[in-house]
Amino acid sequence: MTGETDSSHRLRGNYDGMRPDYTVDQDLSAYTAAEHDRWRRLYLRQSALLPRYALPLVAEMTQRLHYEIGIPSFTEVNQRLKPATRWQIVAVPGLLPDEVFFTHLANRRFPVTVWLRREDEFDYIVEPDIFHDFFGHVPLLFDPVFADYLQKFGQGALKAKSLHGLEYLARLYWYTVEFGLIQTAAGLRTYGAGILSSAGELPYSIENPEPYRVHLDILRCMQTRYKIDSFQETYFVIDSFQELFEKTDPDFAPYYAALRDRPHLSADCRLPGERSYGHQAG
Ligand code: HBI
Ligand code: FE
């Protein structure tokens, strides 16, 4: 999960010794007892919020993964993930250049950061750490429809680079994979990893009257800027993963052409006539 950070952004993590594709080996022995304990407290606190705010599929999958006891072994996770959707998670030192990141997605590899946030970052961290990547992203890698969407997204992003569409695709990724909401029979729920891994934003995204919630329109979403270091001001809602899959299926080249004549919209922009959603009081 990253945002429109400037290049001077100091990277966390140890990038020495990484392979050409930016992967490293996860050294399970390097995690301290304090880190396993912090993981357990993060995991249990966040898991308790899922039944009320998360897409039921995510809550069920997280429950089945059972990783509350400590920081998981990526090898062990992959023994379960590969048979499920042919995806695997790969260990990385932290943020990757866009092209490297999307190349992994295009090959059904999800980059998961190896380090865990510090105690003073317990409630909020801007960069993706292992808790965000694992708790936020891994459960949905077990869903076949979403798993296919993510691979297609990576493949599309690599094409977008030549069409100067990467900035637009990064927004679509942000407002779906990281901060997406979905309408269910039980009401609005979240499936976005950035929300799922955040103790504050999970209730905020569903219950707070402040943010704007609007149905996902691909062009409108790609015009909309996003915030990287605060709760989102706009959330985009879908009715199903199938809808997401179908809306992103066509070739995006015409979209990028259309976007060149359209203005960038602020993160809190509200356009007349849009199908918006109210909040859902707890
Ligand atoms: N790198 N490790 C890592 N994780 C991300 O989520 C990530 C990244 N690099 C780029 C990136 N995300 C963004 O370009 C996407 O969010 C669009
Ligand atoms: Fe993320």
Key features of this structure:
single chain, 282 residues, alpha/beta, five-stranded mixed beta sheet, 12 helices, globular, disordered N terminus, binds 7,8-dihydrobiopterin, binds fe (iii) ion
Question: Could you explain how this protein is built, in words?
Answer:
By secondary structure, the protein is an alpha/beta fold. Helices cover 45% and strands 10% of the residues. The protein contains twelve helices and seven strands. A five-stranded mixed sheet has the order 4-3-6-5-7. Strands 1-2 form a two-stranded parallel ribbon. Mean pLDDT is 94; it is low at 1-8.
Q: Any idea what the radius of gyration is?
A: 18 Å
Percentage of β-strand residues: 5-15%
Secondary-structure-derived class = alpha/beta
Q: pLDDT below 50 for ≥5 consecutive residues: which ranges?
A: 1-8
- Taking the alpha carbons of the first and last residues, their distance comes to 27 Å
Q: What series of H and E elements makes up the topology? A: HHHEHEHHHEEHHEHEHHE
Give the oligomer, counting copies of the same chain as homo and different chains as hetero.
Answer: single chain
Helix content class: 40-55%
**Annotation, overall tally of beta strands:** 7
Average pLDDT taken over every residue: 94
Main sheet record: 5 strands, mixed
Global shape: globular
Bound molecules: 7,8-dihydrobiopterin, fe (iii) ion
Strand order of the largest sheet: 4-3-6-5-7
